[in-house]
Structure prediction request, 343 residues.
Amino acid sequence: MSRLSETPRAVPRYRKLVFLTWFLTLDLIMFGAFVRLTDSGLGCPDWPGCYGHLSPLGASDRIQQALHAMPYGPVSVFQAWMEMIHRYAGATLGTLIILITVLAWRYRRALAHGPALATTLLAMVCLQGAFGAWTVTHKLMPLVVSTHLVLGIALLALMTWLAAREKSHDPVPASAGHGRAWMILGLAVLFLQIALGGWVSTNYAALACMDFPTCHGQWLPHMDFSEGFALLRGLGKLSSGAIISQDALTAIHWTHRNFAMVVIALLGAIGWHWRHTPGLAGPARLLLALLALQLATGLTTIFFQWPLLIAVMHNGGAAGLVLVSVTLLWRLSQAGKPSGVAP
Prediction:
């Protein structure tokens, strides 16, 4: 069969592959949060295998030895499997993105989109894989783990843009085009908040303030920002080797908590403005719902002391906000086009 005759069938297959990969990317971010929150990041303290084996099955003796030496340490059979399943899923995602890139180049004329975005995705997933390895080899260094999280969210944003190009929607009025700048600002603020949230999680500062809306009974508690936001240090300690202080953890938590109000105000105003606009109403209303969910899960983690399910939902809500915000930005970029899809 000639390449020309393959093309009409290749385009639908490419689109299905994009949507499958987008869904796996979202799932992987959720599962990555579960791995982090169950302290499974060092379930297999080497990389890419588990004590030199392809799975925890071959490493059972080593895992039992580590568990016997440190019964409450970072290694157990459950934690090893969680870590390796996360790696298997990451490898699957990388393979799918390689396939997307190959198809994007091969069928670039039929797809009506250049292969640049798919190629960028490939570079991004390779970088993400490197940070995944460094997360283990640097023993959960907060800067490395937080960067790994932000890169995962950035990968989701790129996959969402790629998927949005392949899905039709109601035409967006040309007058809505001026909203692109506000949506870009909203995304930038959202990414900053996610980075702050990652810093809270990787420093185990989620319970640094146990009351709300005050912190330790004060609007401005005693905080150490220089220590809390020192980047080049190990987990739970400073570059000097000293244990990180409670004042530093309070600074991390307080910053994330209060910057959330900026995110809610900005994205809430954007969602409210577009909630009745053709082509934008659906994602705009979903944006408002996700903001309410994030506020609820954020407060619940404080009042119920960080329950695992709620914490994973909070991470998933952040990913959902990125997904919806990127979708809105894509549709705003198509404002005034009759079909709502790029030519």
About this structure: Residues 118 and 205 are 36 Å apart (CA to CA).
